[in-house]
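Dear U.,

Please find below the material for section 3 of the report. The protein was modelled together with pyridoxal-5'-phosphate; I have listed the sequence and SMILES used, followed by the predicted complex structure.
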Amino acid sequence: MSENTKFVLSEDEMPKEWYNINPDMPVNPAETAWNAVLHPGTKEPVTPEFLSALFPMRFIGEAVSMDRWIEIPEPVREIYRLWRPSPLYRARRLEKALDTPAHIYYKYEGVSPVGSHKPNTAVVQAFYAKEEGTLGFTTETGAGQWGCALAMACKFFELECHVYMVKVSYEQKPYRRVMMQNYGANIHPSPSDITNFGQQILADDPNSPGSLGIAISEAVEAAVASQGKLKYALGSVLGPVLMHQTVVGLETIKQFDLAGEYPDVVIGCIGGGSNFSGFAFPFLHQNFTNNTETRVLAAEPMSCPTLTKGEYTFDFGDSAGMAPIVKMHTLGHNFVPAGIHAGGLRYHGMAPHVSALYDNGNIEAVALPQLSTFAAGRQFAQAEGIVPAPETTHAVKAAIDEAIKCKEEGTSRVITFNLCGHAHFDLSAYDDYLQGALHDHEYPEEEIKDAMQHLPEVSL
Ligand SMILES: Cc1ncc(COP(=O)(O)O)c(C=O)c1O
């Protein structure tokens, strides 16, 4: 076992292929492939024409591919080299602070130019769009992590980038908006007056603060209306997005070789599923093929407990019912989660792959209340220096809980989590926490029950 604190790979050691979990899914592939994706209007399986109006063809091909390893194109690797391979750290100071026999390791994706894991797929989607001769992308963003990643990627490939940013974030959290504008992106506060859906929302409520669901609906409408000039980029949920993120977990496995250890527990925070999957799927591959028995744990917010409390059924991907319908764990597409600061985890649904793996018992999940996650984020910062993004604090809290369990049981286990983003643009959340202005939200049982009355009826 190494005495080092930091485990770094050279650029040459960066993975040359992503891991595609499709052939290893322990469920019927029909549950996660495009034939389980239904058109929001007809509720029949989507056609290639419908999909190609939204996504680049190469991206669509990846979703149905049964090749276990898919080559990372060289122009993408060239950009990945700006920050990849990212470091793996042994959290020795946190271990000491917790007085635990556990060994805690964290992979740090905050070293990307925009401070999170999101560019790992943004760069790929931009490359595919450029290759096809598309002019640019539309997308949505909440607090701006995904929007910044796509804005940067689009600039690298000289593509237009039109971001529908949830209005309340546009007004209250200007720094990521400025960052996106600095990359040359066009930012529209959502609801906007430039789409039919936005106009409809504004007519009903001129002061609507917006929501991620509304912003997705606007971005999808704008892509379809562009008649092929613009495609729609999604930063999570879909199979290819999860696959692009596996570069994170694949690097981590190599770094554990350097550390001379192998994890017993792998943890990721989870919103739509991309960070968790990118980190955890390569370890699941080892479980499936190499007889390892690593526990894989997803950490979600108590106020939006999609995996632990949601139903595994068909639902719309957005609030307005304009995006495709998929089989996933859902709290109901018109459930509006409480305004917790971990904006990236406030999504009613879940990646179909993650849902199927959870349903099949391959992964575990835990739902955590907001205050405990900020306390863990602060404890981590005080020991290790890095201030984790509000989303990431969920993984930090889950890792600390596992380490404390080791202490109570007198066992040493190897625990790892993905520190998928820093909080440099989210410090207002910590400010609220330090001022005592944050509170926990009860599990929203009644609201979820109500939202579940509005699931689409499908014949599959
Ligand atoms: C730092 C960070 N972590 C996690 C998430 C959750 O998304 P996903 O589950 O796709 O990783 C987000 C989403 O915006 C994010 O910004």
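For the text of the report, you could mention the following: The CA atoms of residues 302 and 367 lie 5 Å apart.

Regards,
Y.
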